From TrEMBL:
Residues 1-40, 63-107 are annotated as: Disordered. This is DUF8175 domain-containing protein. Residues 18-31 have a biased composition (Basic and acidic residues). Pfam families: DUF8175 (PF26526). InterPro entries: DUF8175. Residues 93-244 form the DUF8175 domain. Keywords: Membrane, Transmembrane, Transmembrane helix. It comes from Streptomyces alfalfae. The chain crosses the membrane at residues 40-60. It comes from the Bacteria.
């Protein structure tokens, strides 16, 4: 496996190269113009939102003993690829990573989502934590094969400085390093007992938060395909590949200041369990 392949293990893109995204126009915020909305359209929008909220509240407050004559099983929503299944999350953890997934399609999806979060986290830039993640996420054979090249990639001075970090992997003074993956949804492409292929669509936040950051926090979108194997009572990653997108249309929201972004990183912790 080449060094470029290992760069796809993190949130840096699917092209096999490290990508440092800087705001266009030397930090100038680009906004798209939109036609003004009439007051009648605004009123219709507000009324529609209110109606949806009322309906949602009424549905949420409806008890199991409703008068519609439906049984408890009939009231349960059908499981969907983008909806929670209602199953209890795993209880075990291995090195801080949720483990002990169900030997079924849902368990495979949960494993893929949580392993993606771990592989795309800032912990991958810490030598000891990285090794713990690799040992937990990959099959034993794959972990032994990937560990040396991952250590080389994540400790390379050229790579670290290209993304704005110090040569030792630490963040420059008065900045905070951000590397997070936010799963949006999963899809089982194939399942056959002890093996599964799962796609996960997610957004990635990556960069430095701070006034003097050379690589400001930016958002990217990717889809990763995980080949999973059932090994020693849990799902493990045997291989995966990554591609860009799907990428949603950006709204004309003003970018937050470096100070606000740094505060958000401190105030909002990342999730440890997805799906």
């Amino acid at each position: 496996m080449s060094l470029d392949d290992e760069r796809n293990s993190g949130p840096f893109g699917g092209s096999g190269e490290t990508r440092t995204r800087l705001p266009e126009g030397e930090g100038e915020i680009r906004r798209t113009s939109r036609p003004g909305r009439t007051s009648s359209r605004s009123l219709v929008t507000v009324v529609g939102v209110v109606v949806l909220l009322i309906a949602a509240i009424a549905f949420a407050n409806r008890g199991d003993g409703g008068s519609d004559g439906a049984t408890g099983d009939e009231k349960k929503p059908d499981a969907a690829a983008t909806a929670p299944s209602g199953e209890k999350p795993v209880e075990g953890k291995n090195g801080g990573i949720p483990s002990g997934y169900g030997h079924d399609e849902q368990g495979a999806q949960s494993a893929a989502a949580n392993y993606a979060v771990a592989l795309g986290s800032a912990d991958m830039f810490d030598k000891d934590r990285r090794r713990g993640i690799v040992q937990t996420v990959y099959t034993p054979d794959e972990a032994a094969k990937r560990q040396p090249s991952l250590d080389e990639v994540y400790s390379g001075k050229k790579f670290l400085t290209s993304i704005g970090l110090n040569p030792d992997g630490s963040a420059p003074e008065d900045t905070k390093f951000v590397s997070r993956i936010i799963p949006v949804g999963t899809s089982v492409k194939s399942f056959s007992g002890d093996s599964a292929t799962v796609e996960i669509w997610y957004s990635s936040l990556f960069g430095l938060a701070g006034e003097n950051a050379k690589n400001p926090v930016s958002e990217s979108w990717f889809t990763s395909t995980y080949e999973l194997r059932w090994v020693d009572g849990d799902w493990k990653v045997a291989d995966f590949k990554q591609k860009d997108g799907p990428v949603p249309v950006g709204r004309d929201q003003r970018a937050s200041t470096a100070d606000d972004m740094a505060k958000a990183v401190e105030q909002f912790g990342g999730f440890t369990y997805a799906r």
